[in-house]
Amino acid sequence: MQIYRLQGELDKATDSIKNMLLDEAYKTIFGSLELELVKLYDQQKMYPEAINRLESISQDYPRSKTSAEAYFILGNYSISQEWDLETALKYFGMVSKEFNKSLLVKPALLRVKEINSYNNLIEQYDLYTIKISEVDSTGAPLFTNKDLNDFATIIYGLAELESFHFSRTDSGLVYLNQLIQLTPNSPLFPKALYAKAIILEEKGDDVESIAIKNQIVKNFSQTDFALAITNADSSFLKGSSSSDLKLVQAETSWEKDPIIAMDNYREIVNSDTVSETSAKAAYFLAYQYDRYWVKPDSALKYYGWILKYHSSSDQAIPSSKRITFLNQVLSDTSASQ
Description:
With 337 residues, the chain is mainly α. Among the domains are: 143-240, Alpha Horseshoe (Serine Threonine Protein Phosphatase 5, Tetratricopeptide repeat), CATH 1.25.40; 242-337, Serine Threonine Protein Phosphatase 5, Tetratricopeptide repeat (Alpha Horseshoe). The protein has helices spanning 2-6, 10-21, 30-43, 47-60, 65-80, 85-98, 105-131, 145-165, 169-182, 189-202, 206-219, 224-232, 242-253, 258-271, 276-292, 296-309, 316-336. It is built from 17 helices and no strands. The model has no long low-confidence stretch (mean pLDDT 90). The relative contact order is 0.04.
């Protein structure tokens, strides 16, 4: 069974466990085998099958370590698959009742605490959502600066739970965006920006993530969030230049739309003659015109640009060689005409 799993043959591993569950020789470990089967279902995203199996485990192995684990997993499924927090609370509450020495008792209690906190924050959020639109008899808003800061705390709490505890990053981003737009002067503003940057990075949106990190380093340089960013990547110490961001954007768009990507590379070269990034962009342009677009004049232009502005760069030597070669080819072509 383990060999099949290591080899990625999950169907065979599943069949192997099912056969073992039919053999009385394995009766003493039936509970463990059932849980292994659930994990295999989960790996294959067979969630209905996993949930059905867990429900039967909780009934077939009552008051045991096995049933406690089954209830814990059911609680997590109620969050991740169904977003049913009421049912999740019920399942997590069953863990200690089934087996109070289970290693999952404390994690289950933590889950209960998280859900209760979330429900409490939702109630406050709804109240503040109504209050923010209220005005007095003169039409002036009743919502004070303190109310706004309190509301920001509530919104961030929801965003954090959604994103980092319940793995619902899309919902978390909705709250973070609301906080960023609604309370730009809140002490939580840079924290919200940092959380958004981390989530976007995990989602693969490097362009926006880098832009937000630069914003934090530039505008909130004394915060722990700026320090965390620069400690993780020293290129942010002086703030990433616009050329860095444009290069990421160009690289990202290359496969989808080479024409737009080439425009992005040209924009870097036209606006920046100093950074290493501009040398990379110029060499990319020269290489594409040289090898793929077969436009030697354009290739020579960018190879020459590199020698003019970045004569000591890594790109200078190959650029010089290609200039010599292309000039020779053009010379031979002219002579033969």
